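Supplementary Note 3. Input sequence used for the single-chain structure prediction.
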Amino acid sequence: MSPIPILVYHRFGPIVTDAMTVTTSTFASHLEYLAGHGYTVIPLRALVGALRGSAPQPPPRSVVITADDGHRTVYSEMLPLVRRFQVPVTLFVYPSAISRADYALTWDQLRDLRATGLVDVQSHTFWHPNFRVEKRRLAPAAYDAFVTNQLVRSRRMLESQLDGSVDLLAWPFGIVDDELAAKAAAAGYMAGFTIERRHVRAGDSLLKLPRYLMTDADRGKAFEALLTDGAPRREPSMEKRAP
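The predicted structure, written as discrete structure tokens, is reproduced below.
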């Protein structure tokens, strides 16, 4: 399998308001570039299937698009472009915010997104904890229970609300270790995703697959370089980091 980039977006809007915002025009330019230069946007699940040997190998110049956190601009800004370009997208959401936080999508909006046939909705744990901090704060037994609850509760609520299978997991802040990966597997997840900035390659650990954290700086020549696995390293201040 040729190396494949997974892109992860967070928020969209007419202007950049924080490090996680990609302007709607920049996102549109990404989709226009992919469509005009022979790239195929494939479902994340198709890539995972190929890595597991249960699905066909993706075509050359494949790309995967994901979006984390379930921000409301996924519905207002991203969805129209996803429909226009007919590209598959996987959303990773944390259910504690859905229909509760003012910045988040609602359950009805998530159902609308899934009904397009272009959007899959998967787990970002229950409330997006920093597992590194929680491991320092809690006793070992309490930490074990905390992690299991975050993984299992999220999966069950998403499956109950959206009537679909949930077995993919985006690690909050990209934090994962062997212990967390084992717990995710025990909780029924078959693949997990970090924000390690490189392409996915055959032989990568299924529960620690890399993704490119997209910012508005990833446009023009920078975006083209990223697609060819030539993305420059970023200054630490531009990465989504654990506190």
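Residues 235-239 have pLDDT under 50 and may be disordered. DSSP finds eight helices and ten strands in the chain.
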